[in-house]
Each structure stands twice: as C-alpha cells, then as structure tokens.
Amino acid sequence: MTALKFPENFIWGVATSAYQIEGAVKEDGRGTSIWDTFSHTPGKIRNNENGDVAADHYHRWKEDIALMSEMGLKAYRFSTAWPRIQPAGTGKVNKKGLDFYDRLVDELLRRKIEPYVCLFHWDMPQPLQDKGGWPNRDTCAYFAEYAGVVAECLGDRVKFWFTENEPWVLAFIGHFLGNHAPGKKDIGATLKSLHHLLLAHGLATEAIRSAVKQPVKIGITLNLHPVYSATDSEKDKAAAERVDMFINRIVLDPLLKGTSPIQGSTVAKILTARVIQDGDLEKIRQLDMLGVNYYTRAVMKHSNKVPVLNVEQVQPVGNDYSGMWEIYPEGMYQTLKKVWDYKPTCEIMVTENGIPVPDGLDFDGRVRDERRIRYLQSHIAQVHRAIEDGIPVKGYFHWSLLDNFEWELGYGQRFGLVYVDFKTQQRTVKDSGRWFAKVIEENAL
Ligand code: GCO
C-alpha cells in the first residue's frame, strides 16, 4: 500500500486537560473547581474516584515533556486550570499557579514542541459557580479577565490559543443530563450556559488580542458528530435533523455564520427569551482556528423517551465498539466536510481523536494496544482523505498523551499513548505511542 503522505509542516500533536492529568489539587494556592466538588460528591464518579492525584502531572511535567520529545511530537495542546491562576475566579492572581505554566511553556519550547494553550477545559472555579456559574452572564466578563491574565504571562511565547474546550459538553452534559459538573438538569440553564460560553469565547479572544503584542491565532475546540437517521422514515430523519441542530449547528452557526439556529425558535422563546442580546453574535464570530474533536457518529430515531428533543440514539449492529462508543472512521471525514461546507475563513485542525482501550502491561512490560493502532490508522487515513478532497486540515492532535481521569468514568477508560500505573505513577510508552512516533517521523501513514 503506498504511503499516505501529509503536507509539509502538518502539525502532529497530543492533547490533555488540567483536571484530567495534573492532580495536586490543593497545592501552591490552587483553588477549588466545580470538578473537585463534583468528583467528591458520592455516587457521581465510577468507584467514587476523583482527580486529586490523577497522573500527578503537576510534579512529573518535565518527564512527560521528555516522553513527548522522544515521540517526536511537534505540538502539545494542554489546558490551564483557572482555579490555579485565579482561585476566586476573578481578582487576585496566584503567582505560583501561573509559574507552573510558565515553566511548562519554556520546557516545551526548549524541546521544540509548540504549545497550544486551552484556557478552559471545564474546571470552573467553585466561587464563580456559587455566583450562578455559566447561566449567569457575568461569568463571561470574569472569563475574559482570566484570559487576559494568562495571555499577559504566556503571550510572549505562546502563539496558539484555544479559549474553551467543547462548550456544548459542559452546557448539555453538565446542565441538562447532569452527568458532568456542575450536575444540573435544567434546559433553560443549559441554553443560557451554552450562549454565555460562546459569548465568553468572543470576549476572551478580544482580551488575548489586547494583552499580546505578537501575532497570535485564537480558536475554540468543539465536539462534533455526523448525525445519521436510523431509517428512511420522515420521523427518524426529522429526529436526526433536530440532533444535528442541537449538537453541531448550535455551535457552528454562531461561530462560523454569526447566526443562531435556536434564536427566535419556540424552544428558545419559552426557555431563554432574552439570552441572546444585541451584539452578542458579532462578538462570538471571531475565529482564527477551529479545533474539531471527533470520536464517533450519532445514529438517531424518533422517540418520546427523551423530553423536548423526542429522540433516541441507536447503536448500529455489526460495527466495532470501544468501551464508550461505536468506532466509525468515516465520521472523521464527514465531520471535517461538514465544517468545510460552512466555507470557513479560519484554519481547521483535529484537536482530539482517540479510543479508550482496557490496556495492561504484558509479561515483558510492553503494552500491545493493537486496537488503538488500528483506530489511529483508520481515522488518520480519513483526515488524509479530507485533505486530498481539498479540505486544508492543518494538524492532528491525538487524545491523549497519558491515561487519565475520564470524568464520570474515572480511571476506567484508558486513552493514553502512554500507559500510567496509577499506583506507582510509572509511565510506559504503548505500542501505539511508538507507532505514532513513526508516522510523525515519516509525516506519512
Ligand atoms: C472530551 C474531552 C476529553 C475527554 C475525551 C474522551 O472530548 O470529552 O475533551 O476531556 O476525556 O474526549 O472522552
């Protein structure tokens, strides 16, 4: 099979997030986040696990960067913990918190690994949650203030910024389904949170631009899923349309078109009449980069089981599955095409893609994660297909560098290219990590 060659300067990276790997939740002045509160609430997390220690990256960051360098990684997308930097969410800055990221950025640059900083990967400071959280529009200004603080500190060295990771997940899973922090079940709070998260992206973009002298690229990362109808029936096709609107268009339309698919709809009128205020949509539509987080597709049918949306997800038989979802490589191409069909002026890159595998060490100390290698091969091939079709995908960041805290699923789902023994914190590069290193070296599949 001829090698699939990627464009020169294609960005090969990995992604992580603060709460999922750092640990040290009470160290050096870090404040409490809503994920500390949620994970310490009995019954919320598998086996009542939490991120108190996680992969202890707060202490092992230098070793982890050395592993990235060994794999020849060109870029590293990580998130800064708001509660480490502003424990109250606003006002007083905790210098020790900023210093951690300062050292991290310097070491990445020394190793010639480009830092991609994500300012918010769901770990909202608890004091802001106590003031109403994302349903409270004031949070947008607090977020812009925090963005300015971090940009002032790192902006002389960091050229690539993501304001937020997957606002939809925090809004819907955190405020409608309740399986993520802050654990609410309120559709009004959900729609308000999503709009305020998008508005906060716009305000933070402006704050970064005014804090940083050098030219920077600013974006956001989105969880996107191609949505398919379970059958050709009109009812099921309409169900798929509704889900596409409520998962994809509800973020893509504001960010790429400056419109909102729910504005003026009955749903919005009933639930959140005055949320979208004049001028908001212009603020939101500011994007140099769009990060696509792709994992799987959604197959939907009409059902009265789920209120408001009246849809139910179908799990097609016959395909491969992981511990969390269907394996559907074609969906990577479909998702990139969906974004491209908006005729975006911003850059597009894959900022998350990965598979949980119940990995373990074999007798000889190797982790033979062939399933992850097959997943990488099939999904990176679809990125190549998109590029061949004229979609200028700039890079691919694998989720994730290390096995880590998988939110409500605790440590039960291993996503790392590097195996973490959570008892000893020993790291072991998996076969997939060595395989990925070869792809990076050859810039080809
Ligand atoms: C997400 C988050 C990551 C997850 C990963 C696996 O996309 O949900 O960005 O924090 O750990 O996607 O679910």
Attribute tags:
445 residues, alpha/beta, TIM Barrel, 8-stranded parallel β-barrel, 3-stranded mixed beta sheet, 15 helices, globular, binds D-gluconic acid
Largest sheet: 8 strands, parallel, barrel
Secondary-structure class: alpha/beta
As for the number of domains, it is 1
CATH architecture: Alpha-Beta Barrel
Which radius of gyration do the C-alpha atoms yield?
Answer: 21 Å
| Low-confidence segments | none
CATH superfamily: Glycosidases
List the ligand species: D-gluconic acid
Mean pLDDT: 96
Number of helices: 15
Q: Kindly provide the name of the CATH class.
A: Alpha Beta
Shape: globular
Kindly identify the CATH topology.
TIM Barrel
Major sheet: arrangement of strands:
1-2-3-4-5-7-10-11
**What's the end-to-end separation, in Å?**
10 Å
What share of residues are in beta strands?
5-15%
- Compressed to H and E, one letter per element, the order equals EHHHEHHEHHEHHEEHHHEEEHEHEEEH
Helix content: 40-55%
Per DSSP E runs of 2 or more residues, the count of β-strands stands at: 13
Quick structural gist:
With 445 residues, the chain is α/β, with parallel strands linked by helices. The protein is 40% helix and 15% strand.
Secondary structure layout:
Layout lengths: L10 E5 L2 H4 L12 H6 L17 H14 L4 E5 L2 H4 L9 H16 L3 E5 L7 H5 L7 H17 L5 E6 L1 H11 L9 H25 L5 E7 L3 E3 L4 H24 L8 H7 L7 H5 L4 E5 L4 E5 L8 E3 L16 H11 L6 E6 L17 H19 L4 E7 L18 E4 L4 E4 L1 H12 L3
Parallel strand pairs: 1-2, 1-11, 2-3, 3-4, 4-5, 5-7, 6-8, 7-10, 10-11
Antiparallel strand pairs: 8-9, 12-13
Helix pairs in contact: 3-5, 7-9, 8-9, 13-14, 14-15
